[in-house]
């Protein structure tokens, strides 16, 4: 039987914000070291979490609220919703890294739905939540790194870019490594901007598979 295709086997530059037809791969995570909480690994794929006391069979007409399929994926534990910072920090590099580290941690924990929630509106329009999840099919042992990056402003928006790296094991047991830029964006304090637009979101991912 031919081995299952993994989107992480694709090579070349990978873009989320501008080229939706290309395969997307993601990166993220600790500032010069492990992500906070890395010592508490994601729940093993074979073990349901304590907060999900029952399993759902695909033969059932619909999954009940809070179900787990036993995969350890998208079990909504822990809650990775960004915690708002003080206003004088929220719009700075500290605010960007607050979201970036949570996004990275969500990928490591295979909480892909929560990671998708941190994308900006443009990215979400190009990738549905279901499509975003399929990009990680078969991946395990995910480790992500996002060292300190650079701030810049242009055309009414602020950007924060970190050169990210992700390592993982694909569905066939082969190690993979991706490197490239992970870009966050927020609208500057301009009249008419909504609270959501003023917050940092992941806007672009540009990763290349190195092996």
Describe this structure in words.
By secondary structure, the protein is of the alpha+beta class. The protein contains six helices and six strands, in the order βαααααββββαβ. The protein has helices at 87-90, 93-108, 112-116, 121-126, 129-134, 195-198, and strands at residues 14-15, 140-145, 150-154, 157-169, 175-187, 201-209. Strands 1, 2, 3, 4, 5 and 6 form a six-stranded antiparallel beta sheet that branches. β4 (157-169) and β5 (175-187) form a beta hairpin. The longest helix has 16 residues, at 93-108. The chain is globular and about 50 Å long. The chain starts with 13 loop residues before the first strand and ends with a strand. Residues 1-58 have low confidence and may be disordered.
Briefly characterize the structure.
The protein is of the alpha+beta class and 211 residues long.
List the helices and strands and how they pair.
Blueprint: E1 14-15, H1 87-90, H2 93-108, H3 112-116, H4 121-126, H5 129-134, E2 140-145, E3 150-154, E4 157-169, E5 175-187, H6 195-198, E6 201-209
Antiparallel strand pairs: 1-6, 2-4, 3-4, 4-5, 5-6
Key attributes of the depicted protein:
211 residues, six-stranded antiparallel β-sheet, alpha+beta, single chain
């Amino acid at each position: 039987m031919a081995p299952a295709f993994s989107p992480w086997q694709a090579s070349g530059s990978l873009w989320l914000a501008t080229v939706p037809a290309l395969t997307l791969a993601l990166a993220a995570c600790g500032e010069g070291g492990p992500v906070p909480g890395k010592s508490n690994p994601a729940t093993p794929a074979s073990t349901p979490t304590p907060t999900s006391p029952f399993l759902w069979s695909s033969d059932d007409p619909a999954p009940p609220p809070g179900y787990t399929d036993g995969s350890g994926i998208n079990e909504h534990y822990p809650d990775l919703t960004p915690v708002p910072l003080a206003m004088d920090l929220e719009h700075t590099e500290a605010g960007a890294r607050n979201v970036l580290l949570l996004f990275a941690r969500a990928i490591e924990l295979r909480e892909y739905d929560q990671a998708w929630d941190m994308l900006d509106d443009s990215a979400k329009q190009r990738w549905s939540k279901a499509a975003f999840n399929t990009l990680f099919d078969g991946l395990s042992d995910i480790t992500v790194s996002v060292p300190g990056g650079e701030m810049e402003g242009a055309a009414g928006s602020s950007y924060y870019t970190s050169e990210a790296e992700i390592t993982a094991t694909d569905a066939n047991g082969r190690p993979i490594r991706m490197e490239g830029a992970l870009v966050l964006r927020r609208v500057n304090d301009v009249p008419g901007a909504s609270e959501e637009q003023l917050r940092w979101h992941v806007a672009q991912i540009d990763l290349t598979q190195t092996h």
